[in-house]
Amino acid sequence: MTTNQPAKTMQAAWYEQQGAARDVIHTGEMQILEPAANEVRVKVYASGVNPSDTKSRSGWGGITLAYPRVIPHQDGSGIVESVGAGVSSDRIGERVWIYEAQLGRPFGTAAEFVVVPSDHAIPLPENTQFVEGACLGVPAMTAHRCLFADGSINGQTILVTGGAGAVGYYAVQLAKWGGAMVITTVSRPEQADLVRAVGVDHVINYKTENVIDRIQTITGQERGIDRIVDVDLSANLDVAASVLKPNSSVNTYNIGSPDNRPAIPAQTFLVNGTVIRFVLVYVMPEIAKQDAIRDITAAIETKALQHNIAKRFSLSEVAAAHEAQDSGKLVGKAIVEIN
User: How many domains does the chain have?
Assistant: First the structure.
C-alpha cells in the first residue's frame, strides 16, 4: 500500500556498459518500480559511494556486467514510501538507512526511489541526518565484522591501520564503544586530528615513525595487540607478524598486492597461531550482519558514532562522485544528495 501516488517515472543515474565513469554513467528518467512481497520502496534522500560500486562499474578484476542496465550504489537513506505484501503499513513514513540495495539486483540507491528487501531498510535514529545514514552500510558493517568476528573486545588492545579511512574511522569508534584501547596509523597530521577527535588512544604516523617500535612502546611488550583491523594486508604483514599476541587475528578488507598474492610470513603466523580473516560485507554470515546492525544502531543512539563526509554531489554528478572515490584523495565518504 502507499500513502500517495508518486509520478510514474523518476530521475536516476545508470550505466549500460562498463568503463570510465564519465564515459558510461548517464542521468535521466526511468520507470519507478513497485515493491514486491516483503519489499519496501524508499524515497532516497542520500546515496553513498563505495569502492565496490566503482569497481563494479569499471569492470575491475574481471567483474562482468550482470544486467542490461545498472543503477549503482549499495548504501543510502531515505523514507519508506510504500510497502509490498507481507510488510506492515506501519513502516510507511519511517526514516531508514539502506544496505546492499544493489546486491543481486540491478537497481541501487543512485535514484529518487529504490526498492529493497524490507530487512535491508533499517530504522534510522532521529539524531542522524540522511547524509550520515548513507555513510553506514558497507564501511560500518565491515568495521564491525573486523572487530567482533571473534567476540567481545572489552579490555583488548586493537590496532586499526588507516584510521582516517571510511572503514577505519568507524572501526576506531566502534572499538572504543566496545571497550578496547585503540591504536591507529595515519599518514598526515590532519588525519591524526580527525581520529583524535573521536577518542582514539594512540596515533602513529607511519610516514615518519617506526610503527612496530611505537606499538611495542605503547603496549609495553613485544607482542601486545589482540586484533588488527587492516586496510592493506600486503603493506602491513610485517607489522602484524611483529606485534600480534599469540592466537590473535588480522581482519583485512583489502589485499593491497597488485598481483593478488601477498607474501605471507607463514611460519611466523603458524607458530603464533595467527588467524587471517578476509572480510567482505556482501558474503558476511547473516548473523554477523544482524549483529552489526544491532550494535551500529546502539552506538548511534548513544552518540558514540560520528560520520565523516568528504564531499557531497548532486544526482547529476554521480560520475564526478565516482571519480572522486577512485582518486584515492578522499578522506571520508562521497555522498550523493537526491531528494
Answer: 2
